[in-house]
Amino acid sequence: MPLSLLDPWWRRVYGSDRFGECLRVFLALTGIVVYGLLSGRLAPAIPMLLGAIACALAETEDQWRNRLRTLLVTLACFAVAAFAVQWLMPHRLLFAVGLWLSTFLLVMLGALNGRYATIAGATLILAVYTMIGADLAGGPPPDLWQEPWWILAGAAWYGVLSLLWSALLPQQAVRHALARLFHALADQLEGKAALFVPVRGLDHQALQLTLATRNEAVVGALNDTRLILIDRIGSRRPRGATAALLQRYFMAQDIHERINSSHYPYDALVAAFFHSDVLFRCERLLHRQADRCRRQAEALRARSTHRKDVTDEAAQEDFLAAIDALRQSPQPPSPELLRALDALSNNLLAIDTQLAGKALLDPLGRRAGGSLQDPAPHSLAEAWARLRIQLTPRTMRFRHAVRLATALLAGDAVLQLAHPQHGYWILLTTLFVCQPSYHATWRVLWQRVGGTVIGLVAGWAALRLLPLGVQLPLVVLTGVGFFATRHRRYAVATAAVTLFVVLLVNQVGNGYAVMWPRLLDTLIGAAIAALAIRLILPDWQRRQLGQVLADTVRSDSRYLARIIPQYRRGKKDDLDYRIARRDAHNAHAELSGLLANMMREPSSQRRAHEPLLRFLTAAHVLLGHLSTLGAHRQQLQSVTARNTVQQVGNALARALEQVATVLSTPSATISTSPVFETASATDCRDDTTQLVLDQLALIAAQGQKLALLAGDIHRD
Predict the structure, then answer these.
(1) Does the structural domain 541-715 have CATH classification 1.20.58.220?
(2) What is the DSSP string of 21-59?
(3) Domain spans of the chain?
(4) What is the pLDDT of residues 468-519, one digit of tens each?
C-alpha cells in the first residue's frame, strides 16, 4: 500500500478511542505468551492472561500519579479476592457466604464514585476468573499461593504498561474525551437543524424527543470529560496544554447551552416564515456548525489544527442577508418575530465565534471561577456518608447489590448440582448479564448468548483447521478483539473472548472439552440473570418516576435562580452557576433515559406513556428557554428593568419549586399548583430587556403546562 494511503489510515487508527487500550492489551498478552514459550511452561500463562485482562477491565482514565494509586488499590483488591477464592473453594458453605457478602459489598463500594465502581466490578470478574483457573487446573492446587500469584503477576504486568502509557501520553485521554464531546455536539446540532425545516405537518414533538435523546448523549460526554480534567488538574492551577484543553471544555459548555437555547416556538417560526428562505439558511448554518464540530473532534484526535472551510462563512453571511431582506421587505414581520430572529442570529454567531477559536483568548470571566467541582469523597466521613445513603432498599444500588449477590449464589448452587467440572462459566455469565435495569439485562443477555454461539462455532473451526502453533497468536488477537469491540459491539466481543478461551484451553488441554460446558453454562447463567431481574427486588423504572420528575423541575428552578441575578450584576460563569446548569442538564438526561428504559419494560410495569412524553417534551422546551436566558446573560441598563426581571424570575423559580413538590408528593393535588406570574408593562423595554421578558413569559407558559401534566400523571 502506498505511503500516501497509509497516512490517513494510520491517523484514523491512532486517533481511535480504542487504539491505546488495544495496544496495551496486545503488548501485555504477547509478553505473557512469549514468557510461557521461553520458559517452556504454558500452564502459568492461563492465570497470568486472565489477570492481565481483569486489570485492563479495571483501568480508569487517570494521569500517571493517580493511576499508580489506583493500580495499587486494584492489586490489593485482586489479591484479597484471589486468595480468598483459593482458600474458600474447598469449604462450600464458607465459600457461599463469602460469595454473597463480597458481591454485595463490592457493588455498594461503587457508590463512592466511578473509579471505585470500575475497580469493584473488575474484582468480581477476577474472583470468577480465579475459580475458572482453578477449575481448569482440576481444582485448587496443593500450593494455594501459586495460582493467585500468577494472576497478580499478569495484572501487575498490564498495570506497568498502563502506567508507562499514561506517563508518555498524559493528555491523550483528555483529547479523546473532548473529541467524543464535540462529536456529540455535532449530532445535537443536526437534531436542532431539523426543527427549522419549513414543512407543514412536521411532528415537532417527535423532533424535540429526538433532540432530548441527543442532549442526553452530550451531557454524558460533558460529565466524562469533566472527570478526566479534574484528575489532570487536581487542586493545582491549570497550565500549558491542560489549560488549553480546559478552555476547550468551557467552550463546549457554552456551545451546549447555546444549542439548547429556544428563542421562539419552532412551529410558530415555521408558520411565520414558510415562504421565506430564512429558515433554510438557518438550517444550513446549523449543519455547517455540526461539520465544524466534527472537524474539531478530528483535530483533537490528530493533535492538529482544524481545517477551515470557505462555505462556513458563506452560510453565516447568507443567513444574515436573509434576515436583512426580511427587515427591508415591504411587509416586514412583526417586531416580536424580528427580535426572535435577531436573538437567534446572535446566538448562532456566538457559536461560530467559539468554533473559530476567537473566544479562547477571552475566557469570559472564568479566571475567577475556572475551577471544577470534584465529585470524589475527600474524607472517610464523606465516603461513609455516601454509602449510608445508599444502604436502603429504596435505592437502585442496594437492590442491584442484593439481586446480583443472590443470583451468583444461585448460580453456585446450580453448578454444584448440574456439573461441578467447568461450571464456573455460569457465574461469569450471570455477572456480565445481570445489569441494574431490566432493558439492559435483556439486551446484554441476547448479545451474550448469540456471541457465545458464534465464538464456539469459530472455535470448533479453528481447532479443526489451524495447527497448534498458529493458535497461540490467535489467542492474543482475540483478546485484543474483545477490548476493541466490548463497548460498541458486545456480541462480537463475546464471540472473540469465547474463541480466546477455547484456544487458550487447547494449549494445555483439550479445547473441545470446554465447548459444550461453555454453551450450557452460558444458557444457565443467562436464565438465572433473567429470573433475578424479574423476581429479586425488581427495580422497575416507574418506582422512581415521581422523584425523577420532581428533580428535573427542581433543578430547572435552581438553574433559573442562578441566571436571574446575572441580569443585575453582569455575566459571570462562576462555579455555582456551572453546577446549577450541569445539574439541570443531568436531571433532564436522567429523565430521558428513565422514560426510554421504561418503554422497554413489560407492559404491566409501564405507566401511560402519552402524558409522560408530553411532560418530557414540555420540560425540554422549558430547558431551552432557560438556556436562552443563560446564553444571553448581561447586565440590564435600566434599574426598573433589572427589578422587574428579578421579581418575575424569582416568582417563577418559586412556582417551579411548587410544581416539583406536587410531583414528588403523591397525595398532592393540582389545586396546590401555583400561578405562574408574568411581567407587567414597563417603559424600559430595550431589545435585551424585551428578550428576557419574552423568555420569562415562555417559561411561565411551559411551567403552567408542566403543572397541568403533573396532575394528569398523578391521576394516571
Answers:
(1) yes
(2) HHHHHHHHHHHHHHHHHHHT--TTHHHHHHHHHHHHHT-
(3) 15-170, 172-355, 394-539, 541-715
(4) 878 888 999 999 999 999 988 999 999 999 999 899 888 877 878 888 888 9
- Return the closest-CA partner of residue 54 out of 147, 151, 173: 151
* Chain position carrying cell 469533566: 226
Burial of 346 (0-12, 13-18, 19+ CB in 10 A): middle
The alpha helices in 599-638, defined as continuous H runs, are: 609-631
Among the residue ranges 133-137, 379-383, 456-460, 576-580, the one predicted with the least confidence is 133-137
Enumerate residues 6+ apart whose C-beta is below 8 A from 452: 494, 495, 498, 518, 519, 522
The more confident residue out of 288 and 266 is 288
C-alpha cell at 76: 490489593
Q: pTM of this prediction? A: 0.88
> How do residues 344-369 score in pLDDT, each as one tens digit?
889 899 898 888 876 554 444 444 44
Average pLDDT rounded to a whole number, residues 406-410: 95
**CB-CB neighbours of 313 under 10 Å:** 13
**Residues in the chain, total:** 716
Cell of 68: 499508580
CA angle in degrees (0–180, nearest 5) for 381-385-387: 120
For residue 309, which phi and psi values (nearest 5 degrees)?
-130, 130
Long-range CB contact pairs, 340-346, < 8 A, 24+: 340/263, 340/264, 340/269, 340/694, 341/278, 342/687, 343/263, 343/628, 343/632, 343/691, 344/263, 344/264, 344/282, 345/319, 345/320, 346/632
Class of the CATH domain delimited by 172-355 = mainly alpha
User: Where on the phi/psi map is residue 682: left (φ > 0), alpha (ψ -120 to 50), or beta?
Assistant: beta
What pLDDT sits at residue 363?
Answer: 44
User: Within a 10 A sphere around the Cβ of 510, how many other Cβ atoms?
Assistant: 10
**Residue 598 CB coordination number (10 Å):** 21
- At 639 the pLDDT is 87
Instruction: Supply the DSSP string of 348-403, one letter for each residue.
Output: HHHHHHHHTTTTTTS-TTTTTT------S--SHHHHHHHHHHH-STTSHHHHHHHH
